[in-house]
Amino acid sequence: MKQSLLQSAFLLIIFSAAGKFLSFFVRILLARQLSSDAMNAYTLATPTMSILITMAQLGIPAALSKLTAQSKNTYPPLLASLMIICINTLFLSISFSILAPFLADHVIQQQNILLVFQSILPLLPLVSLSGALKGYLYGIQKPIQAGATQIWEETARLLFLYIAFALCPHLNAIHMASIAMLSISVGEAASCFYMILSLHISFKKITKASHLIKQLKKSEFTSVLAISLPMTCSRLIGSLCSFLEPMVMLFNKNKAQIQQMIQTYGQINGYLLPILTMPAFLTITLSNLLLPSFTYHYSRHNYKRAKTLFLTISLCCFFVGILCSSICFFYPEQLLRLFYHNETGADALKLLSIPFAFYSLQPCLSSLLHALSLSKKSVFDTFAGCLIRLFIIGFCSCIFQENALYLGLCAGMLVTTCMHAIRVCIAFKRMNS
Predict the structure, then answer these.
(1) CA-to-CA distance for 222 and 210, rounded, in angstroms?
(2) Are 185 and 56 in contact (CB under 8 A)?
(3) Residue 401, SS3?
(4) What is the spatial distance between Cα 258 and Cα 199, in angstroms, rounded to a whole number?
(5) Which of 55, 152, 312, 402 has a CA 20 to 30 Å removed from the CA of 92?
(6) What pLDDT sits at residue 191?
(7) What's the first-to-final CA gap in the chain, in angstroms?
(8) In 10 A of CB 145, how many CB atoms?
C-alpha cells in the first residue's frame, strides 16, 4: 500500500535531518582530527572523487526512479541498470588505476596525494550499487526506506572514523586523508546492506533475476540510457568544474599566491560550504521524492496535481533555504565556533549566506526539468553556470586574488538556478495552453 505524499515527506524530513545531524558529526570529527595539510589533501582529492562518482553512477539513480514510477513491470529497468553499472564501474576502476599517478604528478602537482586517490577505488562499485538501489526504492514508492539509508551510511562512517583515529593517532597527513576518504566507502557499504535487506533480496530472487537478464531487450537498455546520459552530462559538468577549479585557480601564480589560494579553497570547501549547504539534506531528499511523484501524475495527464506537488515542495525548499541563510548571516561566528572550534571565515560565511538562500531551489528545479524530459536544457544551464564560475576564478583572480573564489562560486550558482527557473516557467505556460 502506497504511503501518502504528506506522510512520506514528513518522515523523509525526519530521516534526512537525522542523517544530516550525523553527517555534521562526521565533518566535525574530520575538522578536529585532520591537520591543515590533511584537510587540504582531502579537499584537493574531493573534486576527483565527485567526478568519478558521477561517471560511476551514470545518472542511473534518477533514471531508474523515473522509469520504475511510470512502468508496470519494474524488474526490467532495474536489471538493465545493474548490468550497465557493472560494466561501467569495471571500466572506470581500471582506467582510474592507470591514470591516478599522472593526475597526482602532472595535474594536481602533488605527488603524495596518490594514496588518497587510490582510496577512492573501493567507493566506485559501492556508490554505483547504492545509487541504483536507492533510485529503485524511490521509483516503487518506498521513499522512507530510501531516506533511511543516510542514517546507516553516516553512522557506519562515523564509527569507522572514530575507531580508525583512536587506533592510529599518529599517522601523517596523507594517511589521515586516506582514512577520511575510505570512510565514504564504508558508509556506502552499510547503505547497500540496509537496502538489500529492505528489498528482501534472497538467493531465489537472484537466481530468478539471472533468467530475466537473458530475456532483456535492447530497448530496456536504450530507455535507461536515454534518460540517464543527459542527467550524467549535467552532473558531470558540475563535477568537471570542481575538478578543473584547483588547476584554474593555481595557474600562473607564484608560490605565495598558490599557498593563499589553496588555504582559501580548503576553507571554502572544508568549512564554509558544509554550513551553507545545510538545506541540501532536505532539498535533495524532497527533490528525489518529487521526480517519481511528478512523473507519475504528469504521465497520466493529471497536470493540476503535478503542478501543486511541485509548488508545495519548492516553497518548502525555499523556506528552509531562507531560514538557514538567515542563521548563517546573523550568527556566523557562533556557527563556526560550534562546529569547528574557531571563527576563521566568519565574514565570508556572512557574505555568502545571502546568495545561497536561492541554492535550495536548484535541486527541485533540476528534478522537474528531468521529469519534463528537458534534461538537455538542464545540461546547458549547468554548463553556463560552471563556465562563468571558472572564467571568474581564472581571469578575475589577478584583480580580486582569493576573493575570486567566492565571487565565482556565487555567480555560477545563481546563473544556473535562474536559468532553471525560467525554463520551468516556460514549461508550465505551455502546459496550460
Answers:
(1) 20
(2) no
(3) coil
(4) 50
(5) 152
(6) 92
(7) 35
(8) 18
> Do 226 and 218 contact (CB within 8 A), yes or no?
no
Q: 212 is written with which cell numbers?
A: 530475466
Look at residues 234, 191, 233, 201 and name the one whose alpha carbon lies nearest to residue 78: 201
The Cα angle at residue 165 between residues 183 and 129, in degrees rounded to 5: 10
pTM for this structure?
0.69
Contact 94, 62 (CB under 8 A): no
Question: What are the residues whose beta carbons fall under 8 Å from the beta carbon of 186, sequence distance 6 or more?
Answer: 156, 157, 160
Task: Measure the CA–CA gap between 408 and 386, rounded to whole angstroms.
Answer: 9
The distance between the two most distant Cα atoms of the chain, rounded to a whole number of Å, is 67
- Give the chain's radius of gyration (CA, Å): 21
Give me the residue label for grid cell 604528478: 105
- Give the pLDDT confidence score for residue 212 in this predicted structure: 61
Q: What is the mean pLDDT of each run of 10 residues along the chain (433 residues)?
A: 60 78 83 80 83 86 82 78 90 91 77 86 93 86 81 91 85 87 93 86 58 66 80 76 78 72 82 84 77 76 83 86 92 88 86 91 87 83 91 81 86 93 89 70
What pLDDT does residue 388 have? 93
Residues 6+ apart with CB under 8 A from 8: 143, 144, 289
Angle at 330 between CA 324 and CA 332, to 5 degrees: 80
Predicted pLDDT of residue 58: 85
CB atoms within 10 A of CB 149: 24
Distance CA 66, CA 228 (A): 10
What cell was used for 12?
Answer: 523523509
Question: How crowded is residue 71: how many other Cβ atoms within 10 Å of its Cβ?
Answer: 16
User: What CA–CA distance (Å, rounded) separates 64 from 50?
Assistant: 20
User: Are 56 and 85 contacting, i.e. CB atoms less than 8 angstroms apart?
Assistant: yes
SS3 category, 301: coil
Query: Cell 530475466 sits at which residue?
Result: 212
Chain centroid to Cα 115, Å, comes to 23
